[in-house]
Write a structure and sequence with these properties.
275 residues, mainly alpha, 2 domains, 13 helices, 3 strands
Length: 275
């Protein structure tokens, strides 16, 4: 079995920067959503009203999330400057405390979304379950996520997993959160759990910006391939890495993993459970 390293599947610094930019741009634009009446079309900035007992509000309708987004951004800056403990204590935990005191413990189901398309999807989930739900901007879930991220920086992956899971409860289709949790599960050598998470990340990769779509898909495919190798499923792993190369022929990580698969086959390690 290979010795797993955080940098093997994706530089976490890239994850930090890209997620910060995504959440801030979404959170600071929520004031536009707040005044929008629910409607069938996601492109018009609203949500479909559901029948019966189920209802969903527009993202960010309850409050201006801008100040809390800025609070999280300050925490992200501290994490980037290698001060994760201070980031947790001074920024992420106060934001979490605010949202939990205001929203947690009620019968309403809350979601956090970074786009109207994602919000619409969550509204349909709530309608399917017949529950009342509200869709907020991304800040609450992002505070959970970055607390988990900071805990990873502190070497506490087990506690980090708890907080990333909390973020996923609020944003179950977030590619970023699914990938990070998959990353944590790989570090724990829980390959089956990682396989499921990267599969879901691939399923929901299209929810993000079009210009980053290839990067999101190739990252999820590499996560799948890495876990499949560790499960001894080399043919399936090879297919995932080749799919990543079809999307990005310059993907050096996928090329390296294909070379690793070739080495394993030469050693006769090409059957499930042989690693």
């Amino acid at each position: 079995m290979r010795s797993f390293a955080w940098s093997r599947t994706w530089p976490r610094q890239f994850t930090l920067v890209s997620c910060a930019a995504l959440f801030l741009s979404a959170a600071l634009s929520q004031s536009g959503c707040a005044s929008t009446k629910p409607t069938v079309s996601a492109t018009e900035g609203g949500l479909k009203r559901t029948s019966g007992e189920s209802s969903v509000s527009a993202p960010g309708a309850d409050e201006d999330e801008g100040p809390w987004a800025q609070q999280v951004q300050q925490g992200i800056t501290l994490v980037r400057s290698r001060q994760p403990e201070r980031a947790i204590r001074e920024h992420f935990e106060p934001v979490i405390a605010h949202y939990e005191s205001r929203y947690a413990g009620t019968a309403t189901r809350y979601y956090c979304a970074t786009s109207n398309a994602e919000a619409l999807g969550y509204s349909l989930l709530a309608a399917k379950d017949g529950v009342s739900a509200k869709v907020l901007g991304p800040v609450w879930a992002t505070a959970y996520f970055f607390k988990g991220y900071a805990l990873v920086e502190l070497g506490n992956a087990d506690d980090a997993r708890t907080w990333v899971e909390k973020a996923l409860v609020l944003s179950p289709w977030s590619w970023q959160y699914l990938v990070e949790l998959g990353h944590i599960q790989q570090a724990r050598h829980d390959w089956q759990a990682a396989l499921k998470l990267f599969g879901e990340a691939l399923d929901h990769a299209s929810l993000g910006s079009p210009e980053d779509l290839v990067g999101r898909k190739t990252r999820a495919l590499r996560g799948l391939g890495f876990s499949l190798i560790e499960l001894g499923r080399l043919d399936e792993a090879e297919a995932r890495f080749r799919a990543a190369l079809d999307l990005d022929p310059n993907d050096e990580r996928s090329k390296n993993e294909l070379l690793y698969i070739t080495q394993l086959r030469k050693q006769g390690r090409d059957t499930p459970g042989s690693l």
